[in-house]
Amino acid sequence: MLAAESGVIWVPRVHWGLFIATYLFLGGVSGGSYVTSVSAQLIRGRASSDVEWQSRDETSRWGSLLSVVAIGVGTGALLYHLGAPLRALTFAWNFTNYGSWLVIGTWLIVIFSTLATLDLVWNFFGSEKQGRTSGSFFVRRILGWIAIGGEPVVLNLLDRFSDITKPPQKLHTAIRVFGAFLGMGVIVYTSMLLSDLWTCPLWNRTYLPPLFLMSGISTGLAATVAMPAIFDGLTETVHQYSLADDALIVVELGILLAFYNFLQGRTGCMASQATVDSLNSVFSMPFWVGVVGLGLLTPLAMSLVMTGASALFDLDERSHTWHQIFRAGYVLKYSLVLVGGFFLRYVIIFAAVKLPLTVA
Amino acid sequence: MGEQWGFYFDPNSCMGCNACAIACKNRHGTEAGHVDWRRVETVSTGEFPDYQETNVSLSCMHCEDPPCVDVCPTNAIEKRESDGIVTIDRDECIGCRYCGWACPYGAPQYGEEGLMQKCNLCLDKGPGAGADAESKNTQEDPLEPACVDECVGEALHAGPIGELMDLASEAAARKFEQNPTSVIVEPQTGEEGQAAANVETPIPYQG
């Protein structure tokens, strides 16, 4: 409802809710997972040992899997929000306004999802993947349960499809690198969708795209690297990715605080001031505690403590108990990064204030 | 390009009775509660003893370059060349609510079914009606908007902008020339005869 205040009319703005926040968050996780996946493959060859090679190989596969799962669930959340979801599925001929970021984003997501799904098939299926048992291959085990007359038909079909379609290694890598750029495009799109509108100061074109890009890669990395940490244990790769995530978090924190400072400094803009007020009142918990505290500062602090401790204890020689504690620490850190990433989208959607109509 | 249609509103004649909003709801059968194609806001300005209240009747402004049209993925929203009325084709709307965020006036409304509906300047009755209606300029007996019909103080008028300009004061006409909407708003005349209030379109936010 509208609230009348002195000289202004505040315009109602409750158009999007949790499902859109989830969609934006998962779009970021998906793109970030894919970028992490490709990076792990590219640095795989420089692994210091077989264990690290295996860890990077697993990280790469987990990223490939998570990118598809995240974009799938995210798209589901978007469709659930729509008034006419079936009409949106006919986007190929229905979405005719190519100047709309919703249309640009739809095509980006469709091309990215198609490529990421094909890539997933190539990474998990094919005759060379038969018999693999490491953590990420649980996918094969589950599909193996679907059998007709004792034959795992779906698995066989996917293996055959992969064998027929999988490109040579160099071309496959080139496609994946292209996919990583598309993944970053998907992350940035989620911010362009919002910042294309001039009605909300919180949807700022200067700050939102780099903020979402950092957060998207950071959350995608966190989701991806948490998986080998959970399934296979701690490796040097998990630790190295954590350091990379720390760098992203520091940049993200810098952008976020600069953005907050910018909004606070716009004293002549009532909507900017109302936004800052809401970040410090109604949305103080999700913003200061959820995004800044749990999502950025705590993971950074945890990383500092664990990195400091690792400098004192040699990872390979550490006791089982310490190993488990560190493992749990990294998983918790990555989980908090994801929590913070979700709260960021939540706050960006819910705390957005429209420019009021003024009576001069 | 046909002559543009729009509204004329004079806050000096508006008593804030909400008859316009109710008439609109009645004619178009919109849902009770949160779907308001037209609404009346009472805005206070100044402090005692220079305190003043202004009643503002708001609906879709049928903007010259509507931001809702720019963002609609399916081109379901159209700024009609024939009469300038902004319409929504609900058969094309996917209910993404992007237009709701894009509109600075809060004109797009969403009912239980989640599709967009808004003022169509009474091209026809009901949500989404009028998208394919004949131009107001060529209709023999165009339907008078319900809000105008029921306005007790004759604060609201609708018609071709050229005709509405005949009703407008010099100040209102001058203001309209700088205005990106199709609504002529009369400045409110204070007790001392000074132009005291006018609804301003927000300046696009630039980050």
Automatic annotation (TrEMBL), chain A:
It is found in: Cell membrane. It comes from Halodesulfurarchaeum formicicum. PANTHER family: PROTEIN NRFD (PTHR34856). Belongs to the NrfD family. This is Polysulfide reductase NrfD. It comes from the Archaea. Pfam families: NrfD. InterPro entries: Electron_transfer_protein (IPR052049), NrfD-like (IPR005614).
